[in-house]
């Protein structure tokens, strides 16, 4: 089999396409066969189900992983009343991407001005949309500590307000301390709601003032 893509960020969640080879195609003729992908890392394993999109193509959602490393993906199939069988294997790599770097930076920073330097960057709309999803997934993957500092939540909320990051904002608002972070103002006296409205993100501004 062949995998596309051949790597994914640690938080996973991307669509993985599995192209079957000639040996695998023989089994595809049986409609009752269910295919699975087994990801085997150094200390962690994951099993994902697949959806068959054509006679020779499967798709799966890539799982999250705990460490950057190359893992072995094994294609497995199951038939009613028969043991699980396996055949093809391919390597796959989990990496740390920009979204994870940003998540670590924003959560580790204790200097609000340093963290909010990102606000000064002019980020294209298409990039913002991709960043919104990937940064939200990265933050969820990191499992924010119960006592996450209000300052860190403030950093995230103001970044979301500046660039219209709806998914990031929604995630942060579920965390303890988010209401206090919403009340904090920046050096210009603006709260996250004020920033969102001034940047034209009216829907986000309403979310912050509910």
From TrEMBL:
Gene Ontology CC annotations of this record: actin cytoskeleton; membrane
GO MF term list: MAP-kinase scaffold activity
Protein name, as recorded: DBB domain-containing protein
InterPro entries: Ankyrin_rpt-contain_sf, Rho_GEF
Gene Ontology biological process: adrenergic receptor signaling pathway; positive regulation of canonical NF-kappaB signal transduction; regulation of Rho protein signal transduction
